[in-house]
What does this fold into?
Amino acid sequence: MSGGYGTHPEAIAEVVAAVGDAAVVLSYEEDRAFAAVSLSRFGAVGSTRLDWHGVEVLERSTAFDGAQLRRMVHDHGDGTELAVVFWSNLAVPSVALEAGTVATHAETLLDCSPECWVYLADSRMLIEFQDGEGATVGRVPD
It folds into this structure.
């Protein structure tokens, strides 16, 4: 592990217990590889928000709850595609699972952190959830 990545897996214990073998807890190297093709393609605003300026934004919402995340995953992704959930704290390891599983367990995922990002790999979409600000869905820039 590098730089404290993954040192607090207990933060996602509820997710791992709920989805079982459907989730893969990512190593630091796997996390960084997925971040390179998703989160790292965006600029930053502050320490935990993405800069959506100049990016194709497909939807914005002020809602911040499991129902909203579930709808966004269904509307912008395919249930069988790979989804990677990143948290705002690198000490909490990222998880990879099917997008349909993200939708099914949306409330449990959002209980882990008030800030998270869901990368829909095949669709090349990113969903950003920021507590108090809602959600944004957009295409990952090339």
Observations:
- The mean pLDDT is 93.
